Amino acid sequence: MRIALLIFIAAALDGCSLVDRGCVLPLEVEELVGTWDWTRSTGGIIGATYTPETEGKTAAIEFTSDCQLRTFENGSLVESSSFFVRPGREQDTVLVREDHFVDQSIRLRGSRLELYDYCADCYAYYYVRRVQP
């Protein structure tokens, strides 16, 4: 019986990707869509802080309404993947990226975006919404 259940679960999950799940953004995270410029990252076991100035680079993250996420460094695309959001612990909304092993808690605070890794001694990433001319 257990083997049959495991085979059923494996068959149900086989070939399932984020794209297969469809792209529906909850109303509370529709504001996520757009381009966000990195301002700093903090955390790790030593509590380090990194900024564009200390790292000598700019970075940005872009979310699209069709659940695509793109990351940029110095204006060049470095990663593109699908994403979805799901409820998390307590009042959290969680960002899940395809091909990314750490989920992140999302906090939208007006024109600021905060992403917190869901792991011990990990990082928090802070962004500001890019103003389009």
In a nutshell, what does this entry contain?
The protein is mostly beta strands. Helix content is 12%, strand content 45%.
What would you say this structure looks like, in words?
The protein contains 2 helices and 9 strands, in the order αββαβββββββ. It has 133 residues and is mainly beta. It has one domain: Lipocalin (Beta Barrel), CATH 2.40.128.20. Strands 1-3-4-5-6-7-8-9 form an 8-stranded antiparallel β-barrel. A hairpin with a 6-residue loop joins strand 6 and strand 7. The radius of gyration is 17 Å and the shape is globular. The termini are far apart.
CATH superfamily: Calycin beta-barrel core domain
For the record, give the distance between the C-alpha atoms at the N and C termini, rounded to a whole number. Answer: 61 Å
* Separate helix tally: 2
The domain tally reads 1
CATH 2nd-level architecture = Beta Barrel
Furnish the topology, listing elements before pairings.
Blueprint: H1 2-13, E1 34-43, E2 48-50, H2 52-55, E3 59-63, E4 68-73, E5 76-87, E6 93-97, E7 104-109, E8 112-117, E9 123-129
Characteristic terms for this protein:
single chain; 133 residues; mainly beta; Lipocalin; 8-stranded antiparallel beta barrel; 2 helices; disordered N terminus
